[in-house]
Amino acid sequence: MESGDELYDVVVDAEAQQGGESIRFVTIVPYGRWYPSGHYSSIVIWALALFTLWIASYESANEYRSSWKKISKAVGDGVLVFQTSAATNGSATGARRERAQTEDT
After folding, report:
1. pTM of the predicted model, to two decimals?
2. Whole-angstrom Cα distance, residue 10 to residue 47?
3. 80 near 87, Cβ under 8 Å?
4. Per residue in 31-56, pLDDT tens?
5. For residue 35, how far is the Cα from the chain centroid?
């Protein structure tokens, strides 16, 4: 107990106020509470967790980014990337464009 000496002094003072008789009850009301302090290792753990999440999200979206580059290049070259409903029905107006040679289309 960190403040045992103070508690002992309270009991001795209460006994002195009773006239030297033994004390039956001593009421102690604590007003302060110990709170744990932060440690630098918790900041390091948070930083590592954020870095791990950032790398995981970046790498998981890599396929979308590479596909989007291929699709936008094909659209820029005038290649049909996505089949429209008019083209599938055979009622496309104008010349038909060739399909893009990508894995995703």
Report:
1. 0.39
2. 48
3. yes
4. 777 777 888 899 999 999 999 999 99
5. 24
